[in-house]
Amino acid sequence: MTRKLLTVLSPLAMLAASCGQSHAGDSPPASAGQTTAPFAATEFATFDEPWAMTFLPGGKSALVTEKSGKLILWDGAGKRPVAGVPVVDYGGQGGLGDVVIAPDFATSGIIYLSWVEAGEADTRGAAVGRARLVLDGQPRLEGLSVIWRQSPKVTGRGHFSHRLAFSPDGQYLFIASGERQKFTPAQDLSGNLGKVLRLLPDGSPAPGNPFADKGGVSAQIWSYGHRNILGLAFDPAGRLWDLEHGPAGGDELNLVKPGQNYGWPLVSGGDHYDGKPIPRHETRPDLAAPALNWTPVIAPGDMIFYTGNLFPEWRGQALIAGLGSKAIVRVGIEGEGAKELSRYPMDKRIREIEQAPDGAIWVLEDGKSARLLRLTPATR
Fold first, then answer.
1. What is the structure's pLDDT at 73?
2. 222, exposed or middle or buried, with CB in 10 Å at 0-12, 13-18, 19+?
3. Does the pLDDT of residue 185 top 80, yes or no?
4. pTM of the complete model
5. How many structural domains comprise the chain?
6. Is the separation of the CB atoms in 109 and 133 below 8 Å?
7. CA 199 to CA 204: how far, in whole Å?
8. Contact indicator for 280, 264 with CB cutoff of 8 Å
């Protein structure tokens, strides 16, 4: 049974939300005077610590990951566990992560998963695997194989990132790899921490990567100098963008280009948690600056570029799931720049955002008993 919730925003709430962005040159959201949200939210299910979801062809069912290590097939009528999921190292920010379907899923049935696996001496790192999803009888994964690993494995339980995105032509798999709260690996081209990687669907380095001549792990690297990427998506023009957590301030939206250094931990829009300052982006014009940054932070969970018909005025814009900001943040793209346009308070931390084939927007709250909500235009 579903339950409908109409989100109502007061002018004061919208004004407060607009103050979350203070990047020089940015203007307040254009909708600061808006009194009601443009969508109604309908609850369909609840999950425990969900992290990601993806719709299967047709949009009648979806796969949802729960961080503790469960993959769930949801079809609107109920939830069924999927067997054959890998063992995950669960704790902190670690566990089962992203899930995407292969570009040829309709014929191959292949899906891709990311998760955190344990190593030796209390180390761990993210991994990506692919398997065939079998839906007859008990849903299950067959032939699961690991195609990529974070290198090196290190101690700690943070900044795995492990978001996945296929290029629009389906030829390349992009993986976000966090710097694991170790700072300097983001600048080290001999490892793949703090990087965006471009691979072939089988996990091998894609030909033509900018550091292919270095061989080894370096041949995977597309861009570097990243901190903790939680959003990775292509815009309608086919350009790749990432969304990453800053330290104390300085969350970033970046247009990701091959071979570019995005500066972490050399520069940032924020400072260290102990108050120690970090040089700002403008001090290093040789490094790629973000298209947009936020201080105070929005603490993003995920992002999409909207392409549907239910909200035609949002086409081509980024919709961001906000964790710390407990909001959906709408961002307009202007060439290679970006500007926050609106922020819609959601009352709960929002972990995941997806667009269904019919143009509806689906969001997953964060944490225990997290609701799966379908957002459709509000009745005026």
1. 98
2. buried
3. yes
4. 0.92
5. 1
6. yes
7. 6
8. no
Q: Could you tell me the CATH number of the domain that includes residue 248?
A: 2.120.10.30
The token duo for 72 is 């769930």
Measure the CA–CA gap between 115 and 52, rounded to whole angstroms. Answer: 11
* Structural domain boundaries, residue 205: 3-377
Strands (E), 256-313: 292-294, 300-305
| Res 25 pLDDT > 80 | no
- Alpha-carbon distances of 191 from 152, 209, 212, 221, 226, rounded to whole Å: 6, 15, 13, 9, 13
If one compares 65 and 6, the residue with the highest pLDDT of the two is 65
Which residues, listed in sequence order, are joined to residue 253 by a DSSP beta bridge? 243, 292
Distance of CA 317 to the CA centre of its chain: 15
For residue 325 the two structure tokens come to 């900001």
Pairing verdict, β 3-6 and 318-322? unpaired
Distance, first Cα to last Cα, the chain:
24
- The owner of tokens 């965006």 is 196
pLDDT digits (tens, 9 = 90+) for 277-291: 999 999 999 999 999
Q: How far is CA 329 from CA 298, 339, 347, in A?
A: 8, 11, 13
Q: How far apart are CA 361 and CA 309, in angstroms?
A: 11
Report, as residue numbers or ranges, the catalytic residues: 159
pLDDT at residue 379, rounded to an integer: 79
* Residues ≥6 apart with Cβ < 8 Å to 333: 235, 291, 316, 317, 318
